[in-house]
Amino acid sequence: MKPLFISGIGTGVGKTVVSAVLVEKLKADYWKPVQSGDLENSDTLTVKSLVTNDKSNFFQEAFRLTQPFSPHKSAALDNIEIKLNDFILPETKNHLVIEGAGGLMVPLNNQDLIIDLIQKLNATVILVVRHYLGSINHTMLSIEALKNRKIDIAGLVFNGNSDEFSESVILEQSLLPVVGRLPDLPSVTKGEIAKLANFIEI
Ligand SMILES: Nc1ncnc2c1ncn2[C@@H]1O[C@H](COP(=O)(O)OP(=O)(O)OP(=O)(O)O)[C@@H](O)[C@H]1O
Ligand SMILES: C[C@H](N)[C@H](N)CCCCCC(=O)O
Ligand SMILES: [Mg+2]
User: Fold this and answer.
1) Of all atoms in ligand 1, which is nearest to the CA of residue 102?
2) CA-to-CA distance for 77 and 147, rounded, in angstroms?
3) Recorded E.C. number(s) (predicted)?
């Protein structure tokens, strides 16, 4: 069972929300390898607060950086060097949901990118897409990068407001499956996350 790596077409597109839905649905374990800033309100704590099952394990981040920037910059500001070999896949017999930082080409250091980490961990990607003006291009570039490296893609999750035109061109061009479509929630709560489990098929 390969781990699922939740990446997105950029930062703030809903990777944490989608991760929470998947963790709840699969009663999966969760790991955020790099947390940049917001340490008191980290993605791990957010997912933990949004799921209700008691089977999921939450692994400690490999890097907890104090500043909310790209990991390579946050690490430099904390006088830390991130090395790809520092990332050890947590051992589990359960499903494992791994959440990236930002999008695929976000740097961990001056050489390695999030996409290199995905390859090192031999994970299958779920790409979270949110529609905004410019998102078609960000989506196509992300898919091209994954295909170019022959990384397994489970499919796309469209998060938030729908856009028929954007969605149809992305699906026609990429031929990728849709794993889910999540509506914009009035508030992101445990109850809403549990309901969204039915919106994802994996
Ligand atoms: N479907 C949704 N309905 C309502 N709010 C949402 C939804 N998806 C995401 N949000 C909100 O949008 C914001 C950004 O989402 P989220 O934190 O999941 O993004 P991210 O991709 O994980 O960002 P990062 O790159 O910082 O990890 C959060 O405040 C989140 O609660
Ligand atoms: C701090 C933020 N919430 C994310 N964890 C990191 C986003 C890095 C984006 C870098 C970039 O694409 O320019
Ligand atoms: Mg997040």
Assistant:
1) 25
2) 33
3) 6.3.3.3
3-state secondary structure of 106: coil
Architecture of domain 4-199: 3-Layer(aba) Sandwich (3.40)
**Contacts of the segment 88-91: beta carbons below 8 A, 24+ positions apart:** 88/62, 89/3, 89/121, 90/29, 90/31, 90/59
- How big is the chain by its Cα radius of gyration, in Å? 16
ipTM attached to this prediction: 0.99
Query: Considering the entire predicted model, what is its pTM?
Result: 0.98
Confirm or reject: Cβ of 107 under 6 Å from ligand 1. Answer: no
Domain ranges of the chain: 4-199
147 flagged as catalytic? no
Nearest ligand to the CA of 18 is: 1
Distance CA 37, CA 180 (A): 29
For the stretch 27-86, pLDDT in tens is 999 999 999 999 999 999 999 999 999 999 999 999 999 999 999 999 999 999 999 999
